[in-house]
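#dry-run=false #mode=assembly
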Amino acid sequence: MTPPGYDRNVFINCPFDDAYRPLFEAIVFAVSDLGYRPRSARERLDSGEIRLAKIVELIGASRYSIHDLSRTESDSVTALPRFNMPLELGIDLGCRYFGADRTKKSMLIFDTEQYRYQKYISDIAGQDIQQHNGNSLTAVVAIRHWLQAAAGIPLPAGVATHERYMQFRDDLPVICGNMRLDIRDLTFTDFSFTIATWLREHR
Amino acid sequence: MAETWLFDAGNPYEDIFEEALLEEMSSRHVTEILQRKLIDIRQDPLRQEHALVGGRMIFIARTGELAIGDVQVPPLLIAYTVDESKRIIQLILVRRDGGVRSLDDEVERALASPQASDQPERRILFPADPTSIREEKIAEAVRGVLRPAKQR
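#status=ok
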């Protein structure tokens, strides 16, 4: 049995650092504007749950997922790559293969360059792997294009969604200012709620 | 003041356009140039070069030869059509400018391809988990941004 909302949930497995933040926000906005519910390990960051258990639960609750492997690179201090994102991709693939009611799971994988993954995780060949070049327009269009094909229902155009994202980005500092908060003070759920409210007001 | 032009959220050629865009977006620089051109198009879509293709008025926007820093970006061409009464722009294709491929043939093929007839559904899903800030406070803050815009 899949949980309620499964067919509309999109699990986002992306880096959480400041440099990635604009892209992360664009991805969350795009998923919302296309009529889906973004899910992320960040949504219950402070709840005290075991991180891996939380991630497994979110993956199991989401028919769709976006995995960004673009930060799979050696750390300047440890000379080792951080492997959380490929691990979560692996859990998702396992869920699709072993979960009898989850065979229709669909995933989009982002990397920095087209065939870079072949050098460090070649077994994922055959999956939908796209490059976003760190650009929000490419990321939004790739998400819309993948989701439209995977869900098989007409979705708003990617370029139009990106236009709305740019408008939302302009409004966001003012929205936060109205709440006397910094953008960084918003939790993932607060941010998702802000997007959904903004979209409702801009129908 | 004239109403703003918008990219059509229900663009019937969107799948073809997106496929071409994802194919062409080989580097950050190409994407950046394309993004700038889309802003130009949206500001004044009727100002670009245009021609009749398959009985429809098709606008062609060209980026020309450009460089970002030391990187030379290949020239791009964007074909689109407009609905003046609704002030919407429908993107048809993007590709490298020049070369031997016939633009007319490509545009005609795009115009003739089977398109989704249904308008996209606009569903808004709120988060399943509770917010840390009072929901009404967020809603008020969002509405606060709308008010000045509505007064204009």
